[in-house]
């Protein structure tokens, strides 16, 4: 909380100041960079907070639901704020104009983001991690389809780092599931990726044959801190873990939803999982989606949870009031 108070104060310093003053511009950019760095560790810090809360007060379904609702909105606004902070530093920090790697990018936005390149890049990096943990990794099978014909490029207006984040998480999950299931056979079915550019959507499907997840558990995978992997050490000197914080799916879904897309998991338990990222193909539709705090949001935390309106087989209707 003190980080947020400090950053708010830092920003207020610039209220009513002369925007044309060159020195001031530099000071403002410096302040923006400082704020961004101050908040680098918000996600692991909040995660630790949630763990400590649960250890101290225990958990009940209503509190868990409220934490989930809060974190989804909190992290969504964090994605937005960091996008702005980044955009400002890239455009006014003086480095972007001589960035040879991405000459066409406008700050963090790529007006012709090549989805295939981002997918391949994320695959290679996930594969390196996987090799390190399992001494081996599944191959990639990539398929593309463009509704406008095969000669058109698979490009959209997007923030490549957001897309990278999502596919990287999906690859790590697909690889872990595949390696865990086929550990003994020494033969690993490939991870199959389909990229489809349609009139409205750009869809990326990552399919694995890692044994899948039963329908009953699918929603749970998107809750913060849920993971079936052992919890990695928070020690930063250690190698990046392949899994274990349980933040991969929920945060990736936020990135997808941030520009009006979505991320869904379809599983065939006993076989494998399809994870699908939906992105708006038209930049005019990729509008920022932000939470607002109003009466409806407030109600969310204060709904009276009465008896369930669906029957539970061979049980009385659930009395949710006891969980409060
Ligand atoms: P983490 O990878 O850190 O555990 P995630 O949010 O990425 O966190 O995933 C949560 C859990 O969902 C995983 O621990 C795993 O049990 C399950 N899961 C995710 N993707 C797959 C998949 N492709 N196949 C099987 N299980 C999966
Ligand atoms: Mg993961």
Automatic annotation (TrEMBL):
GO cellular component, one term: mitochondrial matrix
Subcellular location per the Swiss-Prot or TrEMBL entry: Mitochondrion matrix
Family note: Belongs to the PDK/BCKDK protein kinase family.
One Gene Ontology term of the molecular function aspect: ATP binding
Record has Mitochondrion as a keyword: yes
Name of the top EC class for this enzyme: transferase
InterPro entries xrefs: AK/P_DHK_N_sf, BCDHK/PDK_N, BCKD/PDK, HATPase_C_sf, HATPase_dom, His_kinase_dom
Record-listed E.C. numbers: 2.7.11.-
Gene Ontology terms: biological process: regulation of glucose metabolic process
Record's keyword terms, sorted: ATP-binding, Kinase, Mitochondrion, Nucleotide-binding, Pyruvate, Transferase, Transit peptide
UniProt key word Transferase: yes
Domain Histidine kinase: 160-283
Protein name: Protein-serine/threonine kinase
Any single Pfam family the record assigns to this protein: HATPase_c
């Amino acid at each position: 909380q003190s980080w947020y108070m400090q950053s708010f104060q830092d920003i207020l310093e610039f209220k009513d100041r002369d925007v044309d003053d060159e020195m001031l511009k530099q000071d403002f950019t410096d302040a923006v960079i400082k704020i961004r760095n101050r908040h680098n560790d918000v996600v692991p810090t909040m995660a630790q907070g949630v763990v400590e809360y649960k250890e101290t007060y225990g958990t009940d379904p209503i509190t868990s639901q409220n934490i989930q609702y809060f974190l989804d909105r909190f992290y969504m606004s964090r994605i937005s704020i960091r996008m702005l902070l980044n955009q400002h530093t890239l455009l006014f920090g003086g480095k972007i104009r001589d960035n040879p790697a991405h000459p066409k990018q406008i700050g963090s936005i790529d007006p012709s983001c090549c989805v295939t390149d981002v997918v391949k890049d994320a695959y290679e990096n996930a594969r390196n991690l996987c090799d390190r943990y399992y001494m081996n990794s599944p191959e990639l099978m990539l398929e593309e389809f463009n509704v406008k014909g095969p000669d058109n490029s698979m490009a959209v207006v997007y923030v490549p780092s957001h897309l990278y984040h999502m596919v990287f998480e999906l690859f790590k999950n697909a690889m872990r599931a595949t390696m865990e299931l086929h550990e003994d056979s020494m033969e690993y079915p490939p991870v199959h990726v389909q990229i489809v550019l349609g009139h409205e959507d750009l869809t990326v499907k990552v399919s694995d044959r890692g044994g899948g997840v039963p329908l009953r558990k699918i929603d749970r995978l998107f809750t913060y801190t849920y993971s079936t992997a052992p919890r990695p050490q928070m020690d930063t000197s250690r190698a990046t873990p392949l899994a274990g914080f349980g933040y991969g799916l929920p945060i990736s879904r936020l990135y997808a939803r941030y520009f009006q897309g979505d991320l869904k998991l379809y599983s065939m338990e006993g076989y494998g999982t399809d994870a699908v990222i939906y992105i708006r193909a038209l930049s005019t539709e990729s509008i920022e989606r932000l939470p607002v705090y109003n009466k409806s949001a407030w109600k969310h935390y204060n709904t009276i949870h009465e008896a369930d309106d669906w029957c539970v087989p061979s049980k009385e209707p659930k009395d949710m009031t006891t969980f409060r």
